[in-house]
Amino acid sequence: MDEEVVLQEEDLEGSWTLLSWLASCLMVFGGALPYVPQYQEIQRSSNTEGFSTRVCLVLLIANILRIFFWIGKQFELTLLLQSVVMILTMFAMLHLCCTVQNTNRVSTKQHRLSDLDFRYFWKWSAFEDYLLFCFGFTVLCAVVTLLLLDSAVFVEMLGSLAVMFEAMLGLPQLLQNFHNHSTKGMSVKMVLLWTAGDVFKTTYFVMNESPAQFWVCGSVQILIDVAILLQHLSYQSRNMDIHFPPLMKAESQIKGK
């Protein structure tokens, strides 16, 4: 009997280890998955108007800050790897957007980081400018972190800033949709995957007793995701109201005849 109990406990422990490993893998690569349908949508339509590249800005800043937060406070390695994967994913999105925008560009005028024109901040024509900005921001963070690494207050503030930026992930897309009065060009699959991922990772943070900043961030993200989905339903409903009345009028005229 004792041997059976031991074997059952070992099997249970092995199953839990496997599930934990799968959850970690999902955490590392799951954050990048929502951008696959959006990437495909931009490739298919050759149009970037529906996707806000400021989503990339928010995520790049958030994940660079998170990496320095990890240096000051050694939390799960999974979250560090997630940040590296997310940074690479955002660079891939920006590279595609720059390529498409330059292909569609009518004017020969280009906007560069070196112009120092704030009106075109994060609207640069060359992908290299985005890399240069992120490199400069990383160097600045490295210098400040090196000087203040011994301060527990600074480290916690760094973590709070990282999750605050990440919590605002969907806000640029929300504002872009509001500005366009449409969600055309935005991948709804991306937002649905955002929502599923945010629910999963918030649960993961709570179960693994991650720093409180992480699950607070996840909760805010879920609320913004829901707001974007409601926005999509609202604009879709409005478009149906616009297109259906003429059709109904034509049908009534046919019946009258």
TrEMBL record:
The lineage of its organism: Eukaryota, Metazoa, Chordata, Craniata, Vertebrata. One of its GO terms (biological process) is retrograde transport, endosome to Golgi. Its main location: membrane. PANTHER family: PQ-LOOP REPEAT-CONTAINING PROTEIN 1 ISOFORM X1, PQ-LOOP REPEAT-CONTAINING PROTEIN 1-LIKE PROTEIN. It is a multi-pass membrane protein. It comes from Seriola dumerili. This is Solute carrier family 66 member 2. It is found in: Membrane. Pfam families: PQ-loop (PF04193). Keywords: Membrane, Repeat, Transmembrane, Transmembrane helix. The chain crosses the membrane at residues 18-39, 51-71, 77-100, 130-149, 155-175. GO terms for cellular component: cytosol; endosome; membrane; trans-Golgi network.
